[in-house]
Amino acid sequence: MQIANDTVVQFNYTLKDEQGEVMDTNEGKAPLAYLHGHNNMLEGLEKALDGKSEGDSFSVTLAPADAYGERDESLIQRISVRHLQGAKRWEPGMVAMVHTENGPRQVVVVKVGRFMADVDLNHLLAGRTLTFDLDVVSVRAATEEELEHGHAHGEGGHQH
Q: Is the dihedral of CA 95, 98, 100, 103 positive or negative?
């Protein structure tokens, strides 16, 4: 079966940066699962996986626009240090959680003072060209329940 809208895809990946250094992988773990065509995956990855079949292995390099977006310097904001969660003492470069009106969000501490901190709200991988080595483990038709819920269920997907 080929990957198309309304199929559940399980795959393994290795993510590499611009220099080819491995940044993340799920090798040796359960494959990731997603419902194709339902905005559950990076747009560039979903396009690259479209039409592939179980057993296919390939690499795809995504420009920032097809991955996590370009960096937006206007997303560096000053907030109260008390809103940073995840550590007692903060230093530039540390990742913190901040609760926003849209839910929790990871931020990177850029500068920290006694009461205020400058934080970067860009995704950690924004502005980066990324290469994904992908192995398609399985492809199957989505169940009615998965289509109703808008995501894959079971191993590698959402557990109910």
A: positive
Cβ partners under 8 Å of residue 28, min gap 6: none
Maximal CA-CA distance, the chain: 58
Residues 58 and 112 sit within 8 Å (Cβ to Cβ): no
In tens digits, the chain (160 residues) has pLDDT values of 999 999 999 999 999 999 999 999 999 999 999 999 999 999 999 999 999 999 999 999 999 999 999 999 999 999 999 999 999 999 999 999 999 888 899 999 999 999 999 999 999 999 999 999 999 999 999 999 999 999 999 776 666 5
At 60, give phi and psi (nearest 5°): -140, 135
The structure tokens 């709200």 sit at: 121
> pTM above the 0.85 mark?
no
In a domain, 85, yes or no: yes
Q: Which domain CATH number covers 47?
A: 3.10.50.40
